[in-house]
Amino acid sequence: MWDRSKILDYNSKEEINVFQELALQKQIEYLYTNSPFYKNLFDSNNIDYKSIKNIDDLKLLPTSSKEDLEKENNSFLCVSEQKIVEYVTTSGTLGKPIALALTKNDLDRLAYNEKRSLEIVGINDKDTIQITTTLDKMFMAGMAYYMGVISLGATAIRSGIERPDHHWESISRFSPTATIAVPSFLYKLANYGLDNNIKPNNSSLKKAICIGEPIRNADFSPNKLHQKIAEKWDIELFSTYASTEMMTAFTECDAKIGGHHLPELIILEILDEKGRQVADGELGEITVTPLGVEGMPLLRYRTGDMARAHVKECSCGRNTLRLGPVEVRKNQMIKLKGTTLFPQSIEEVLRSFDEVENYVIELSTSTLDTDQIQVYICDTISDDLLKKILFQFSNEIRVSPEIIRIPKKTLLNMLFPEGTRKAKKIMDNRTNTINL
Ligand SMILES: [Zn+2]
Question: Which residue from 71, 231, 401, 406 puts its CA 20 to 30 A from 253's CA?
Answer without folding.
Answer: 231
